[in-house]
Design brief:
Number of strands: 9
Structural class: alpha/beta
Number of domains: 3
CATH topology of the largest domain: Rossmann fold
CATH architecture of the largest domain: 3-Layer(aba) Sandwich
CATH superfamily of the largest domain: Class I glutamine amidotransferase (GATase) domain
Order of helices and strands: HHEEHEHHEEEEEHEHHHHHHH
Helix content: 40-55%
CATH class of the largest domain: Alpha Beta
Number of helices: 13
Length: 385
């Protein structure tokens, strides 16, 4: 019953995991494919196509080749981390007078799987740390900064904050009662950098909410240039994709991993190989007396008393001849005489039972009596050689 219950319990767990996986997959499919966050070519809610289109409508020249010929550059949640040379080149452009609008990458699970252990040198060079804290839906802007045009209330919808130990960074959007800032700015050489942790200030779903447009307009008003560039190269991986990388970032890869996990849990729950070893019960070892008793019972059932009588006669004759130094072929009277002469015992103790064993067939009781008599004669201390 326990084994049956265990097997049914493992089967129930397997069914539950399969159903849960199907529900998750159905929910993901209902949402539809998700684009790259804050990509200027993406019309998804988290994309930034609305920002690029709006800037073109109000008279700015928008390109998607980064800082080339641009006075303002947007580097928004790069998928591929900046290496050291790329970070140095971008910061040199800022020091020469460029304006950088920067949203650090999310340190989420997909990013950790795509580029495990890869450091973003741009974020490190800027001395920014992204911290997770209390969810904030609304934040306030610094009045001295948001004047062209005026902006006060911003919809940020974020758990993330920006922190830095460098006093050169000034907070321009904050949430009262929480640590860290939603948006910061600092001077670098002849240029300036703006950093924010809130996607909603720039994405398709949030750019038109509350005073969010004021964030971009105040940045552009302080720069004065008309050329705006979006960095798109870091929104895609460079190099030939590996199978493991594609699997980590694709639905079918996660499906295979989920199936492997379900199978392992099923084996772990229902398989005995992961539990203690079940040693078979071993009966106690048999004594030599049991073998003798079993053999005697076999002879009795086979009615082989005659065979046993012949064997006993041969065995006793051989023992006597060896002890007395005589041939085993001499008559029983001669063996008995030699026995009596050497040990000064009655020869009849040997002659009578030995002749009885070598004579006509005996019954079981008579056979045992003659064997016992011979054993006692040979076991007598005075008869030992």
């Amino acid at each position: 019953m326990k084994a049956l219950a265990r097997r049914h319990g493992a089967l129930a767990l397997l069914v539950l995991l399969v159903v849960a996986g199907a529900l998750i997959a159905q929910g993901a499919a209902a949402e539809g494919p998700r684009g790259i966050a804050l990509s200027s070519a993406d019309s998804d809610a988290q994309g930034a196509l609305a920002l690029a289109s709006w800037l073109q409508e109000i008279g700015y020249r928008v390109s998607r080749d980064g800082v080339r010929n641009a006075q303002v550059a947007f580097v928004l949640e790069p998928v591929r981390a900046y290496d050291l040379e790329e970070a140095r080149g971008l910061l040199a452009w800022v020091e020469a007078g460029g304006t950088l609008v920067y949203v650090p990458s999310r340190l989420d699970l997909p990013r950790m799987f795509i580029e495990p252990g890869r450091a973003d040198h741009l974020q490190q060079a800027l001395g920014l740390q992204v911290k997770t804290g209390q969810y904030v839906d609304e934040a306030e802007g610094w009045e001295a900064f948001f004047k062209q045009p005026y902006g006060r209330r911003f919809q940020v919808r974020t758990f993330r904050r920006l922190e830095s130990s460098d006093n050169a960074w000034l907070p321009i959007i904050t949430s009262p009662g929480t640590s860290g800032a939603i948006a910061l700015t600092r001077q670098m050489g002849a240029g300036r950098i703006y950093a924010t942790s809130a996607e909603s200030l720039l994405d398709n779903a949030g750019i038109g909410q509350w005073d969010n447009r004021s964030f971009v307009l105040n940045i552009l008003a302080r720069q004065g240039g008309q050329n705006v560039g979006f960095e798109q190269d870091h929104h895609s991986l460079i190099g030939r994709p590996q199978l493991i990388d594609v699997a980590r970032s694709s639905p079918w890869g996660w499906g295979v991993a989920y199936a492997a996990l379900v199978t392992f849990l099923f084996l772990l729950w229902g398989g005995r190989r992961f539990g203690p070893v079940l040693a078979p019960d071993r009966p106690p070892a048999r004594g030599t007396g049991e073998y003798a008793t079993a053999f005697a019972g076999l002879l009795q059932r086979a009615r082989a008393a005659g065979w046993a009588q012949t064997e006993y006669a041969r065995i006793f004759r051989t023992r006597l001849a060896r002890r007395l130094g005589a041939s085993p072929d001499v008559p029983a009277e001669r063996l008995a005489g030699l026995y009596g002469e050497r040990y000064r015992r009655d020869p009849g103790l040997i002659a009578d039972p030995l002749q009885a064993l070598e004579g006509r067939p005996l019954g079981e009781r008579a056979l045992l009596s003659q064997v016992r008599q011979l054993e006692m004669a040979l076991a007598d201390p005075s008869a030992k050689g």
